[in-house]
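Write out this protein's structure.
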Amino acid sequence: MQAWLIAMMTALWMLACVLNGCGGAEERKAEHLERGKKYFAEHNYDKAKVEFKNVLQIDPKTAQPYFYLGQIEEDKQNWREAFALYQKAVELDASDVDAKTKLAKFYLLVQEREKASELVAAILQVRPGDIEARLLKAGIANLQGTPMSCWHWCICKKTISKPHCVFCSRESKKMREMPHSYWPSRS
């Protein structure tokens, strides 16, 4: 009788383990993600990469690991891999502003103005004052040949006292001659 009870308890324990995944997939995914972020912050990219890949083995539809893996590949100057990883992160989580920013930079570098503009517009909807998005907007304006728009998007309303080009930091005659209405308000 006692052997039967032990066998039954063991079978129930094993069934519970299988059903819960011995710790739960979500719990393991969260642990791997946190360890990956910790290693990433410490610039231990090899260990971070392993942890992020572990997350993707558990759930390949999690966007954050793709974003961090993209940053790791970008740091290693593996541009194609970084681009593909940022694309995947945005595909899986359309609300990830940081991944959109990284992806918009790549589109700007290859002069894909329309795609970069779409991403920047989406970023500015969520974060209207985002400086990186404003600089990207300026870069897009510069590609379109409108340097005044470029300057308009990059001004810092609290620190600018003269109209300077944000790219070369020199005062521009064209900017000096622009109408007063283009000058930032001093708030």
